[in-house]
Design brief:
By secondary structure, the chain is α/β, with parallel strands linked by helices. It contains 17 helices and 15 strands. The chain has 2 domains: about 10-130, Rossmann fold (3-Layer(aba) Sandwich), CATH 3.40.50; about 135-405, no CATH class. The radius of gyration is 22 Å and the shape is globular.
Length: about 400
């Protein structure tokens, strides 16, 4: 069974405007499946996970492109960076000759930032780059693609359109995660994530850096999953795992590069040194984080010590996916100062700032207590959202509205 991805439209449009389209993202989120589903009948396909194809790409890039022709999908492109120069030569030659070369090559890669520097240098102006994550709730439920808007009227519209879900159903979704294979097949969840982690460690990690002991990196992966929704403190990582802070920073970068985590940066406008400048970490797939933390069921997760952290992670990543899967870049931050005044999420659009609090309860009290701190910024503060387990969009006061989590 194939579930329509919201990113399809953006990819097809970009293919009409650029010679090369790249879709990056975490392993197993459905990049190649999506491209293969929307490709034209005459578009060829090759994966560089295939040893013979990779050998040819590395030894004779020109012959590689002669052999596979165009239009072409090249899967796991980062495994043969030697193709970059030849790719540029082919595109430039066609552009200089006046040929219509849009849509020649579609690329996928599971190591986004590892690839970006080389691509930025080699293919600037010739490539459109997108990022795909695991399924969003809207994709699973079959709703149309739209970027999350914090405007109250937009929230009300989404709440009317979306399928209502209670808190137990939300945690079932958080526990399972959004990996396509788990959603579209009957594969055992435990088996899937076990294989996923082993593949990620043995292939992506060895490709990205000289990690040394893979077992130690696995311990790091588990440690990070246990801190989803929290501030990233390299000193704590180093102390708990017995590694240096530079190593901790390198390993965090690896998780970010391979799409496993998202780092939410704090918002500050050079107004004061009293603002925290440490990012927060979110696992992009809550199911993977729950597996690594050894939560055994949706119920134990819902009533466990990390219930709030996973609830927040789900909300933040759903909002991120709404941007990415529509081909847009998110403009998200959080706020915290040394007095521990915090706002979970800030969205900034057109000189307007929207505060968002994320609470598991159905009617959290005093949820907008820190919104006033935003008055010091030179931005127009809009009514905020309290995303929680309520059943409908209702005003808390003139400055904040309760919004049900299913309205994401």
């Amino acid at each position: 069974m194939y579930i329509k991805r919201h990113l399809e439209k953006s990819v097809l449009k970009a293919s009409e405007q650029y010679p090369i389209v790249m879709v990056c993202g975490q392993r197993q989120v459905g990049k190649s499946t999506m491209l293969y589903h929307i490709k034209e009948k005459n578009r060829n396909y090759v994966t560089l996970d295939d040893a013979n194809a990779r050998r040819l790409a590395e030894s004779d890039p020109a012959l590689f492109f002669e052999n596979y022709g165009f239009p072409l999908i090249i899967d796991e492109f980062q495994r043969a960076p030697s193709l970059l120069l030849e790719l540029k030569k082919i595109v430039d030659k066609k552009m200089l000759s006046g040929e219509n070369c849009n849509g020649l090559y579609w690329l996928t890669g599971s190591q986004k930032f590892h690839m970006m520097k080389d691509i930025a240098d080699s293919l600037a102006g010739r490539i459109a780059i997108f990022e795909l994550s695991s399924f969003s709730a809207a994709e699973i439920d079959g709703f149309t693609a739209e970027i999350f808007s914090p405007e109250i009227d937009a929230v009300k519209t989404r709440a009317r359109q979306r399928k209502k879900q209670n808190i137990h159903q939300i945690y079932e979704r958080i526990f399972r995660g959004g990996m396509p294979k788990l959603i579209t097949t009957e594969i055992d969840r435990e088996r899937f994530y076990s294989d996923y982690v082993n593949t990620y460690l043995e292939r992506d990690i060895r490709d990205l850096a000289q990690v040394g002991k893979i077992g130690q990196f696995y311990d790091f992966l588990v440690f990070m999953a246990g801190r989803t929704g929290q501030e990233l403190k390299y000193a704590d990582i180093a102390k708990m795992l017995g590694i240096s802070q530079p190593t901790a920073k390198n390993w965090v970068s690896i998780l970010e590069q391979s799409g496993v985590i998202y780092l939410l940066r704090p918002y500050f406008a050079n107004l004061t040194k009293r603002l925290v400048k440490t990012p927060k970490i979110y696992f992009m797939d809550t199911g993977l984080a729950a597996y690594l933390c050894r939560w055994t069921s949706p119920e134990t997760l819902e009533y466990g010590a990390m219930d709030g952290a996973f609830f927040e992670t789900y909300v933040v990543t759903e909002i991120i996916k709404s941007f990415r899967h529509n081909g847009n870049r998110e403009n998200l931050y959080y706020y915290r100062d040394v007095n521990k005044r915090e706002i979970d999420l800030l969205m900034i659009e057109n000189q307007k700032i929207f505060p968002i609090e994320i609470k598991k309860s159905s009617a959290p009290s005093n949820p907008d207590k820190n919104f006033y701190v935003l008055d010091k910024f030179n931005l127009e503060v809009q009514p905020g959202l309290i995303i929680c387990a309520c059943e409908e969009v209702t005003p808390y006061n003139r400055n904040a509205w309760y919004s049900p989590i299913f309205a994401l």
